[in-house]
Specification:
By secondary structure, the protein is an alpha/beta fold. 37% of the residues lie in helices and 33% in strands. It has 4 helices and 5 strands. A 5-stranded mixed sheet has the order 1-2-3-4-5. α2 runs parallel beside α3.
């Protein structure tokens, strides 16, 4: 299953100083959520800000959402901010239904945090 999961979700990481940008491609579902958590949690000690670019994220389910919450808590407890950009309609709906839109910092098209 690890090879299957890796083919469902791929990550491109770019680090510039203490800012890490992680571009997610594929599906963020049960079986792939650990991939994101493992990779991003490795970035936390050296990063003050982690930006998850979800432009190419095709789908996310509740397990994926749980992993985002877990990352948020890990970042927050280590003095690092976690920001989400380029969210698709489905993920915005999922965050809205679970009342998490106000928890995450979601960056809009103009680079300014969005208010929900």
């Amino acid at each position: 299953m690890p090879n299957e999961a890796a083919s469902l979700l791929t990550l491109d990481v770019e680090q510039s100083g203490d800012i890490a940008t992680v571009r997610c491609h594929g599906r963020f579902i049960a079986g792939t959520s650990q991939i994101l958590y493992s990779r991003v949690s490795q970035l936390i000690p050296a990063s003050k800000r982690i930006v998850l670019d979800l432009t190419d994220l095709a789908y996310a389910d509740s397990m994926g959402l749980g992993s985002l919450v877990r990352l948020y808590v890990s970042c927050r407890s280590r003095g690092c901010s976690l920001e989400l950009i380029h969210l698709g309609k489905r993920l915005i709906e999922l965050l809205g239904v679970t009342h998490l839109l106000k928890v995450f910092t979601i960056i809009g098209e103009n680079g300014v945090p969005m208010k929900f």
